[in-house]
Amino acid sequence: MTTGAGTETPLQLERARTIFEKGAPGRRAFQCPARDVPEVDSEQLLPARFKRTEPPRLPEVSEPEIVRHYVSISKRNFDLDSGFYPLGSCTMKHNPRLHERVAGLSGHARLHPLQDPERAQGALELMWNLQGALAEISGLPHVSLQPSAGSHGELAGVLLTRAYHEDRGETRRKVLTPDTAHGTNPATVTMAGLEVVKLATNPDGGIDLDDLRAKADSEVACLMLTNPNTLGLFDQNIAEIAAIVHGVGATLYYDGANLNAVMGISRPGDMGFDIVHFNLHKSFTQPHGGGGPGSGPIAVSARIAPFLPRPIVVRCDDANGGDTNGTAPAPVFDLDYGNGPEGSKSIGRLRGFHGNYGCFVRAYAYICSLGGDGLRDASEAAVVNANYLLARLSERGIADYLPLAYGELCLHEFVLSGGPMKRELKIKTLDLAKRLLDFGFHPPTVYFPLLVEEALMVEPTETETKETLDAFAEAIGAILREAAEDPEIARQAPYTTPVRRLDEVGAAKQPVIRQAL
Amino acid sequence: MSRYTAITPADLDAMLAAIGVGSVQEIFDRQIPEAVRLDRALDLPDGLAEQDVYEHLRALAARNTSAEDELSFLGAGMYDHYVPALIDMLMERSEFLTPYTPYQPEISQGGLQVMFEYQTAISELTGLAVSNASVYEGPSAVAAAGYLAKLHNGRHKFVVSTGMHPHAIETLRTHAHGYGMDLVEVPLTGGVTDQGAWAAAIDGDTSAAFFAQPNFYGAVEDAEALSAAAKASAVTEATPTGAGVRAGSAVGSGGRDPIVVAQVDPIALGILKPPGECGVDVAVGEGQALGNRLDFGGPSFGFFAAREEYLRRMPGRIAGETQDVDGRRGFVLTLQTREQHIRREKATSNICTSQALNALAGVVYLTWLGRRGIVELGELLLARTHYARETLTGLQGVEKLHDQPVIREFALRLDGDVAAVRRRCSEQGVNPGVDLHALTGRAEDRGGLLVALTERRSRADIDRLADVLGAAVAAEPRAAVPV
Fold first, then answer.
1. ipTM strictly over 0.90?
2. What number does CATH give the domain A97-365?
3. Best of B21, B29, B38, B42 to mutate (most A CBs within 10 Å, chain A)
4. Average pLDDT over all residues of chain A
C-alpha cells in the first residue's frame, strides 16, 4: 500500500469548522408553537433579578444546515458498521438494527419513568425477564439493573461489599486487585473510600497465589477479578482463589467486561464470585455510541442481596391478574423500594429512576434472539475467532516481532507484546496502530495491560468472518514487512485519515475545550 | 451458527486446524477447570427469529401507557418534550451509533468535534467556563460534583437543600457514604430553601453546598443569595484566632471556600440567569429534556460544568482542540491524566463509558432551538405554566403548595386523596402529574401533586386537565388530608 503522502484526500482538504462558526443571525430551525394563552407581563411571572439578560450564544442555523453539518462530520468517524474493530476488552460485536427498532416503539421510548406501575407492566415485565436471564447467565440469583455503566456497577459492587461487612460489625479497608486490572477497578475503590492493594501476576498470567496468601487477611474487604482476565486467560486457580478470599471473610467481585468468553460455558457464581457486573454495551450489543450510553447491571449472591440498590422489579405471585368488577387489572410486576425492614439495609440509590431502560430493551431483544444455546454459540464463536486470529498472527514473519505475551491458547482475546518489533524493526506499537488506520482497520487496544511491554490487546468478537480475520492478519504482516524496509513509513502514519497524528501534548498543555464565541 | 455469526463447518475445520486443536471443546477443556464449567444448557427460552422478537417486544410496549397514549403532565426530572425528527436520523447513523470511545483521534474526528461543540453549548448555557463531555445522568452528576468538592478541599460535610430532586439527595448520600461525608439537609420555607437555615448549616467544615434551580417543587430559587450566603458563612463561621487564617484551614483544606453546586434544568436556562452569573461554582443536571427520549428513565445524559479553576479535577472525558502534523485543525480527548485508565486509584472519577450519543442529541437539540428559540421556548413555558397554575388553583379543592415564581412545573395541594384523584383522572385519559408524597415520602408532601408542562401541552390540553382534575377532586371525600 502506498502512503498517499503529498496528495490530500477530500476529507483532509475540509477544514474543520464547528456549528458555532456557521449560520447567520436570524436563521432558525425551530418554529415555536403559538402563544395560545393570555399575555401576562413577564416581569410579573419572573422578576428581572432572576432573568437572563442576554440569550445564550447558541448557533443560528436552518434545519438543512444542521443536517449537512452533522452528516458531514459523521463521515470523519470510523465505526463498527464500516469496519473491523478488534479492540481488546471492549467487545465490539455487531449491533443488530432490530434493537433500534424495538427500543424506538413509543410504548418503550415515550414511557415516563414515574408512570404508575400498573400502567407500565410491559416495561416491568421486560426488566423482570432481563433480571432473570442475567441471574441465569451469571449463576447469581439477585439482580439490580440500576448502574449506568460498568464502572458504575463496580462502584455498586464495592459499596455492597462495604455494606455487607459493616452490617457484620466489621471495618475492612483493603481491596485486592491484580496488576492486570482495568483502571476503573482501582479508581472505584478510592471513590468507595477503601484502599487498593495490588496483587502480582504469576508466569502463567494468573493471580500469584503466594502473593494472594500473603496479602489476604482480616482487613481485606474484597478481591476484584476479571476472569478471563485482561490477558484473555482463565485463571486455573480460581477455586483456590475463592477459597482463600472467602477463608478470610472477604467477598469476591467479578468484573464482567470479559463475560463474552464464557456465556453458557462457565458462570461467575459457580466460580465462587459473590458480585458480578455486566456490560450490556459489550456482551449484549448495546451500541457503544462513540462513548456511551452503557448499562452495568449487577448480580449478587443471597448474602449480598439485602444491600442491593433500590428499586428492583418484583413479581407479585399472589396477584390474580385482574379483579372481578372490571376495573384496572392488579399489577403483576411492581417496583420494590425496600421500605420494609429488609430493605433498610440497601446501600441506596446510585442514580435517578430505574437505570438505562433503553439499553435493557436492546439487551433483552438480543437474549430473546439468541436464547441459551445461542449465547453459548456466541461465546464459542468469539473464542474460536480469537484463537484463529492468534494462530494467524503466530505465523513466521509476525510472531517474531509480536509474540504472544502469555499462554498458548486464549479465550475471547489475547495480548501480544510489541517489544521485539520495537527493538528489531524500530517501530513502536503506537506506530503499528496508526499504520493500521491506513489499511482501514481500527487498531487493537494498545499499551494495556500495563505489565506487557508495548502491549497490543486483540478481541475480534464472534460476529466477524474468517475473511475479515485473514485480511487483518495480512495487514499486520504487510506493515511489519514494510517496516523492515523503511520504518519511517509507520512512524509517520497515518496518511489517509481525515487528520493525521495530532498534538495531544499541546492540547493538554494549554487546553482549548470550547469554541471561542 | 446464529444469524449474527458466520463460522461455517468448512470454516471451522480450517480454523481448528490452524489453531492446532481437534474441537472447540478442546479449547475450553484446556483452559477452564472442569469444576467450574457449566455442565448443562442455560435455562433460557430458545432463540427466536427476528420477526418473533419484534412481536414480543411490541406486545410488551403495548402494555405500557406512554405519553403517546394519554394526556400526561408527568415531570419531576424527565419531561415529554418534542424531539425533532433530525435527531432520530442522526442518532441512528452508523458513524455516531456504533463507534467506541474516540481513543484513536485520527479516525474519530466526528465524535470528538461533537463533544467540543457540546462542551461549548453547555458552557454558554450555564455561564461556566469549562464543561466535560457528559456524565451518566442528573442525580449521579450531583454525586460527581460532590466528589470534585471532596478532592478540592478535603472537608467532611455536604449541605443539601431539600429542594434538590429526592433522587439526587439519595444518590449523593449513597456515594458520599463511600468516601466518608456527612450530609445535612436544609428545609424549605415557602417553597424555597430557608436562607437562615442554609447559612447556619454551612461552616468551615462544609465541603460543598447544593441547591436546585428551579427546585424540585418547581420554585425559582434566589441562586445569587444562596451562593453568596454559602461563601460568607464558611468564612465567618470558622475563622480561627490567628489573623489572616481563613476558614477551613483547621481541617487542612488550604483555606478554600465550600463549593456551591446547583442542579439546574437546562430548558429553563433560556430565560433564567445562568448559574455562572449567580456565584455558582459547579452546575450539573439532567440532560434528558434536551432532545432525548423518556425511555422509562434512561439512557439520557448528565451535564457537568464548572469554573475554570476546577478543570483539572473534572470527572469524565473532555475534548480539546489541537493540530495535526500538517497543521490541520483537529480534536482529541485531553487532560486524560485525570482519568481512571491513566491515573488508576488517583483518578478524579472512575467514570469510563458515559453518554456520548445522548450528548450528541443534546447539542443537536440546542442547535435546533438556536439562540432565539431557546428563549422563545422558555417564555412559552413560562406563560403556559402560569396559565395552568392559575386555572387549576381556580378549582374547588386545589391550591398552590407555594407562591414562588415557576417556569415549567409547579406543586399543588389537593383536598382529597391524591392516589384516588389520579386514578379518576387516568380513567379519563389524563395523567395529572406526580404524587409528591409517593415520591418523597415527606409528611409535608401529603396531598401534593407536581404538574409539569412542555411545549407539547397546549392551552386546550391544560383546559382539559382542569376539567378532569376538577371533577376528580370534587368526587373525592373532603378533608381526607390533615392541613
1. yes
2. 3.40.640.10
3. B42
4. 94
